[in-house]
């Protein structure tokens, strides 16, 4: 799939109508999501024929992108049942096969194989350090690569994890 086509498809996904501030819910826009996953696939081969987990999946944009780019399996994980319902509806609208799991990432006890983790975690403005909790768990779960979006103010901390 070409980059512009991927961005267009992702742009049609439903977004949060009432984001939950306490969970720091904000959608990953189609522009950045398409480029993030397209680069992961076309520069590094980390999506197609891989098992990809989308941590804190929200409305499912990153997981949908991974599926559209040929992931063997996508596992979308979120603590919020409303987010999972929206992500599931988005996947169904595109006829995408994505597995959804309700779980707090900080308590995840994953035993399955995951090649790549993609995520746009909470930035930690409401719960300090939650972004690093997501990153630490992603590094434990992923066998090959982690792609994560963070505030620039946490760049040095992210490098030390």
TrEMBL record:
One of its GO terms (molecular function) is S-adenosylmethionine-dependent methyltransferase activity. Residues 84-111 form a coiled coil. Residues 48-133 form the Methyltransferase small domain. It comes from the Eukaryota. Keywords: Coiled coil. Pfam families: MTS. One of its GO terms (biological process) is methylation. Belongs to the methyltransferase superfamily. PrmA family. This is Methyltransferase-like protein 5. It comes from Citrus sinensis (Sweet orange).
